[in-house]
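quick one, three chains, predict together pls
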Amino acid sequence: MVNLSKLMENEVFMAFASYTTIVLSKMMFMSIATAFYRLTRKVFANPEDCAGFGKGENAKKYLRTDDRVERVRRAHLNDLENIVPFLGIGLLYSLSGPDLSTAILHFRLFVGARIYHTIAYLTPLPQPNRALAFFIGYGVTLSMAYRLLKSKLYL
Amino acid sequence: MVNLSKLMENEVFMAFASYTTIVLSKMMFMSIATAFYRLTRKVFANPEDCAGFGKGENAKKYLRTDDRVERVRRAHLNDLENIVPFLGIGLLYSLSGPDLSTAILHFRLFVGARIYHTIAYLTPLPQPNRALAFFIGYGVTLSMAYRLLKSKLYL
Amino acid sequence: MVNLSKLMENEVFMAFASYTTIVLSKMMFMSIATAFYRLTRKVFANPEDCAGFGKGENAKKYLRTDDRVERVRRAHLNDLENIVPFLGIGLLYSLSGPDLSTAILHFRLFVGARIYHTIAYLTPLPQPNRALAFFIGYGVTLSMAYRLLKSKLYL
């Protein structure tokens, strides 16, 4: 039987596991940020969420949108759109036997870029801060996809 | 050569595979629910989707939004935002050699919480039903992330 | 120690890696398509994004929505909603030791259907082109989920 705990002795895979866990935890933080702004600004999407703030018509006034809440939601969706490809391509790339230092460089750049993207989106920092962070993360994922397809294409 | 079918003899991994398949199938059901409400309520986002209901201006009146459709879409997006971290962190956690009964407890709680979350969102049940379901799933994923980083951190 | 590079000698897994990398790269292209339409049509969601097009009130007029941009965003979200289940279920299915030609048929159908879905959404082609593409991809994922649960259920 394959000793699975041995899979975790592979350094590239362990590094991938660590960086992925960090970047996914960061993404999960966006849910808390959304909830925080919804509660402090009393901005809700569902009638049952603001039932505690009043009855009938009085509560309905909290069913509205808010710039800050929408900003956090866009940042969250952008995370999803970029972290899902990293998750899939990064996992397969890690299993394809890349050089350890190259792999870690990819993971560090991606995680750093996504954390900076969130800071740039939520502050907000002037462009091109956010665009730059986006394209670094994007480029890292494409670079891993390229190496994977170059060495292991099987259609 | 690694006998991959042996990977599936690892009980934690098999349990992860089963629960993940169930929770992803549940998430896929949300697409059907959206399509159902769009068709029965004649609420569409694309002109080509309602071309069969009339011509020209007559069809355009179906390009609208609807509370129930938006509710299903929010539930679907919330699924994505929470199941993606579970997928990534849960896979790595399963490979890190956790205790079988602890792992199964995590998976069961998560899948149960997400199914209850959908019921609470679509019925809708009064709060804090949905919030509670959300935080149980969220806590399970964080707990797996914590155990993973504590035992296998490699940066 | 498990020789991970051997995992990539498994043909089903290599095929999964190749098709997944292609379909995820296709999904990443949607970000570029959104950015392209936002820039050429001057349609932005964030004030800092259109700061270069004018000052104060002059720039604010670009904070608007646009049919074409919203269409690309819907196509992108639909990709996410369908590729995430394929990623999770497909990975586990690949590891469950399926027949090579059956597995490749599943992967090819899925990737082809999702590429056709994007073409049908962005052109746009009349229905039922997009609906058909959606249901082929959906059926492929369900078929893999069914085989996985039938052979490896462990709850």
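The mean pLDDT of chain A is 86.
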